Amino acid sequence: MRAIQLEKPLQFRLIDIPEPDEPLAGEAIVRVHRIGICGTDLSGYLGKMPFFSYPRIPGHELGVEVVAVGPGVTNVKPGDSCSVEPYMNNPNSFASQRGRGNCCEDLQVLGVHTDGGMRPLFKLPARKLHKATKLSMEQLALVETLAIGCHAVVRCAPQSGENVLVIGAGPIGLSVIEFVKLTGANLIVMDMVASRLEFCRSKMGVKHTVLAGDGNEEQALRDLTDGHLPTIVVDATGSSKSMSHALNYVGHTGKLVFVGITTENVSFPHPLMHRRELTLFASRNAMPEDFGRIINLIETGQIDTRPWITHRTGFDDLIGQFPSFTKPETGVIKAIVEVPAS
Prior knowledge:
Elements: E1 2-8, E2 11-16, E3 27-37, H1 39-46, E4 61-69, E5 81-84, E6 87-88, H2 94-97, E7 108-109, E8 121-125, E9 129-132, H3 137-156, E10 163-167, H4 171-183, E11 186-191, H5 194-204, E12 208-211, H6 217-224, E13 232-235, H7 240-245, E14 255-258, H8 270-275, E15 279-282, H9 288-299, E16 309-314, H10 318-325, E17 334-338
Parallel strand pairs: 10-11, 10-13, 11-12, 13-14, 14-15, 16-17
Antiparallel strand pairs: 1-2, 3-4, 3-8, 3-17, 4-5, 5-9, 6-7
């Protein structure tokens, strides 16, 4: 069967690979129907993702159908539609035993450390499948993106009425926005691209936005927070420059969350952090329970994924179209790859 492999930065190729063997105990074989393109895929293509290994079959935002299960599998059956939790952790690792398999020291993320879903069929542990009865394959492919934002918001635990700034209105930033909105916090979104801020206002109901780049960002934030600055800032840019500067926007006693990732150093003056007694969080991947929560939120209409998908492409057209997805001027928020049935 055919698969798309990222051989090295900036170079995809179409390859032939064998179909998966019969599933063993605890395993399932799935057919891939939809693949979401996310910031990790873009960074891997551009050579800017520190955890990415080459050559690699990308794809970890997946809407799949179960086609076979191995002995002992009870959570899914052939014919089920599922979202994939792509974080292949070692259940016996130190982090997993502490309930944090999302950052397991042996972690293998589909499409990053190990081959992912840009192929018609593959095999994985059945425990990583999250069944839905009402969602389309496109909706299922967006669950993992939303899970990243869900986990980041859980990490910083905004309270109703608290001022929260999200820096970066790309797909990961948008996922953070969705879950900040659910907390009842006062939301502010900052980005350097005016069209992305317009998308947040018109499609996601964000009232307050700040266009970055004019040097007046801090004052604009103070004007929106009675002069105190936000007490939670989530940086979803993956830019070392933005991440290094983000501490300046955090008010006294506040929290800064890095959900984006960079290969470069992040630095800031310690006195600023110390004076305000700030707390710095990293947020990596998501938790199994986040997937079930998100499926329920979409099924009950509390999250609407329809505005997210701005571009679609077929499996056969992806290699030629992928470079355009790296360019903000094309207006890409979320691109979806449609995988043919055979």
